[in-house]
């Protein structure tokens, strides 16, 4: 199993809503990543988890709150988002931090109204 | 963060080789050179990586300049399925994507 599964695939939320994005992998990878991608732009790193601990936060606003409940799961909790936060949110994993290959999910397309 | 520079777009004819260049003049000795590609409506997928020597795999070849300040991804026979955005990345303890090259393959 070399898949990273992200749910939901699409999400529409209002600015006062609270929602969560979920990412799962069963490859035994110990590093997991959140990226944000605006249309026609490259992915931008948001967070890195290393052995279930947050190791990198790229100065992301606190309305994005990551969580890594165990080595297979990564969540991104969303609260009070702005319309400019609308984007494709990509999850990735690698065998170890800075490991050889990143495996990406297909992403969650988020629209904030 | 170390940066990469790539052309915004390139075109190739189907069945012909494609050479995608990348400049990374600020590379340090321990930075690996990675290439990923992103097909429409998908997450990026790994293509190839290397440190100093040229590398080959079933998808592509990676040619690395002797001074490591540039590299070239080579697709030996482009197909329509290879149309994607190709990203050259310097891997340190994190992966920072450059702007990428949008490859168009003409039938």
Percent helix of chain A: under 10%
Q: Quote the beta fraction of chain B.
A: over 45%
Rg estimate of chain A, integer Å: 13 Å
Number of distinct beta strands of chain B = 10
Helix content of chain B: under 10%
Largest sheet of chain B: 6 strands, mixed
Mean pLDDT of chain A: 94
Order of helices and strands of chain A: EEEEEEEEEEE
Largest interface: A-B, 20 and 20 residues
Coarse shape of chain B:
globular
Low-pLDDT stretches of chain A:
none
Task: Look at the structure and give the mean pLDDT of chain B.
Answer: 93
Uncertain segments of chain B are none
Label this structure with key terms.
heterodimer; A: 113 residues; mainly beta; seven-stranded mixed beta sheet; 11 strands; B: 107 residues; six-stranded mixed beta sheet; 50% strand; globular
Could you describe the 3D structure shown?
The complex is a heterodimer of chains A (113) and B (107). Chain A has 113 residues and is mainly β. Chain A has strands at 4-7, 10-13, 18-25, 31-37, 44-50, 53-57, 64-70, 73-79, 87-94, 103-104, 108-112. In chain A, the strands form 2 sheets. In chain A, strands 2, 4, 5, 6, 9, 10 and 11 form a 7-stranded mixed beta sheet that branches. Chain A has a 4-stranded antiparallel beta sheet with strand order 1-3-8-7, with no helix packed on it. Chain A is globular, with a radius of gyration of 13 Å. The mean pLDDT of chain A is 94. With 107 residues, chain B is an all-beta fold. Chain B has no helices and 10 strands. In chain B, strand 5 (55-56) and strand 6 form a beta hairpin. Chain B is globular. The mean pLDDT of chain B is 93. The interface between A and B is medium-sized, with 20 and 20 residues.
Summarize the structure.
The complex is a heterodimer of chains A (113) and B (107). With 113 residues, chain A is mostly beta strands.
Describe the protein's topology:
The complex is a heterodimer of chains A (113) and B (107).
Chain A: E1 4-7, E2 10-13, E3 18-25, E4 31-37, E5 44-50, E6 53-57, E7 64-70, E8 73-79, E9 87-94, E10 103-104, E11 108-112
Parallel strand pairs in A: 2-11
Antiparallel strand pairs in A: 1-3, 3-8, 4-5, 4-9, 5-6, 7-8, 9-10, 9-11
Chain B: E1 9-13, E2 18-23, E3 32-38, E4 45-50, E5 55-56, E6 61-64, E7 70-75, E8 84-91, E9 95-97, E10 101-106
Parallel strand pairs in B: 1-10
Antiparallel strand pairs in B: 2-7, 3-4, 3-8, 5-6, 6-7, 8-9, 8-10
